[in-house]
Amino acid sequence: MQWSQQISFLTVEVTANAGNTVGLIGGSEMDDLQMKSTRLYDAIDARRDDLIALTRDLIRIPTLNPPGDNYLEICEYLARRLKKSGFGVEFVRAVGAVGDSDAYPRWNIVARIEGAHSGECVHFNSHTDVVEVGRGWTFDPFGGELHDGKVYGRGACDMKGGLAASIIAAEAFLQNYPNFSGAIEISGTADEESGGLGGVAYLAEQGYFAPERVQHVIIPEPLNKDRICLGHRGVWWGEIETFGEIAHGSMPFLGDCAVRHMGAVLDEMENTLFPALAKKRTDMPVVPEGAKQSTMNINSLHGGANEPEPDYTGLPSACVPDSCRMVVDRRFLLEENIAEVKGEINAVLESVKAKRPNFTYELREVHSVIPTMTDRDAPVVQTVAAAIRDVMGVKAELVVSPGTYDQKHIARIGRLKNCIAYGPGILDLAHKPDEYVGVQDMIDSAKVMGRALETLLTPRN
């Protein structure tokens, strides 16, 4: 069944505020589907305790990245769970991808179940890796503690709660629609937090997200349960290295301090580049408000000799540093192009060179991603917006993420444009101490996902 046939009973009402909020009004067929949906929603409500237990189990597998701990363990856990529901399971190691090694193999899982009739495939993709714990926790980061209707732990909202919600949604749907049309896929993938090269990018290169195989993708990232994320800003990471001449620290006039040269670069950025970036604005519905402009973060800065080993207790030697390295994290807008982004950094460095004697540098690209944004009227957008309206009684807010996620690989490598991020969790909690996901948010999001499956994979009669 083609997309136009699947959602032909929907009409779209776009409000006047820049087209960022979509409400959907259904006809008589919507009423019939509403009655069917009640059984599905009841089935999801009945799985509340199971959803909590699943989320807690996933959090308790510490899939820290870097370095990439326990990827196989979490894939094996998911395989046991999904096989019980009738899914066929495939383990895919991203052999040769960045980060893959015998010590830390990049394992991914792809589970698929075919319906009783031909049709389209809906794919739920969640990354299984989590970032470092950091300081400031009052809950055990890998305890999966349930407190006051929230499950706490590293990765709770980003994004093991979303993974759990998608599994519950699929299982409830299968219980209510054993003769569905098409196919459902659920994947758990590696390395999203470090670029996704050992996860979704590798799978896309192998054809797992080819439009001939998969037609709709929902990524349950934590963008708030009443929002649909259409895409993300672009990113360009560059490493700047300034050079000097080593000398004794008591006679710095005999050397040339690379750190002072980098200080001049920072000063030029403060005076010219940062003010220029603040003036660039986008028509993309990026959240939060501060991300509607171009931004740049100084990701790291290091000058002089390498840091001593952790067990070394002595003092550093007295030397003038002959090298200083800085990594910049530049986030750019759909209205910009990557050549312009690189040119601005080059302009800063050349300006410093023109004013500063003995200034030499190297600029190296570390990573780059082009901005992406799914059309507001794409089938998966309209379907999930209708489901949000039905489940929560609100119009879905269409947003764009300030940072990138794995949609970039699905769109660019997989050539599949009908892709969104939608899931439970509060975006601002991602990577923070005492990260949590609300149980009711997961229930509501699971109902939205289940309703989307109804719309896309069941007949209208």
What's the layout of helices and strands?
Blueprint: H1 3-6, E1 10-14, E2 21-26, H2 28-46, H3 48-59, H4 71-84, E3 88-93, E4 107-114, E5 117-127, E6 146-147, E7 150-152, H5 156-176, E8 181-189, H6 200-205, E9 216-219, E10 227-232, E11 234-243, H7 258-278, E12 295-303, E13 323-332, H8 338-355, E14 361-369, E15 372-373, H9 379-392, E16 396-401, H10 407-412, E17 419-421, E18 436-438, H11 439-457
Parallel strand pairs: 5-8, 5-9, 9-17, 10-16
Antiparallel strand pairs: 1-2, 2-16, 3-4, 4-8, 6-7, 7-18, 10-15, 11-13, 11-14, 12-13
Helix pairs in contact: 2-5, 2-11, 3-5, 5-11, 7-8, 9-11
Provide a concise account of the structure shown.
This protein has 461 residues and is an alpha+beta fold. It is 33% helix and 24% strand.
In CATH terms, what is the architecture of the largest domain? 3-Layer(aba) Sandwich
Largest sheet entry: 6 strands, mixed
- Residue-averaged pLDDT, rounded? 92
Structural class: alpha+beta
Distance between the termini: 14 Å
Keywords:
11 helices; 461 residues; 6-stranded mixed β-sheet; Alpha-Beta Plaits; 5-stranded mixed β-sheet; Aminopeptidase; alpha+beta; single chain; 18 strands; 2 domains
3D architecture notes:
By secondary structure, the chain is an alpha+beta fold. The protein folds into two domains: 316 residues, Zn peptidases (Aminopeptidase, 3-Layer(aba) Sandwich), CATH 3.40.630.10; 136 residues, Alpha-Beta Plaits. It has eleven helices and 18 strands. The protein has a six-stranded mixed sheet. A five-stranded mixed sheet has the order 1-2-16-10-15. The protein has a four-stranded antiparallel sheet with strand order 12-13-11-14, covered by helices on one side. β6 and β7 form a beta hairpin. The longest helix is centred in the middle third of the chain and has 21 residues. The chain is elongated and about 80 Å long.
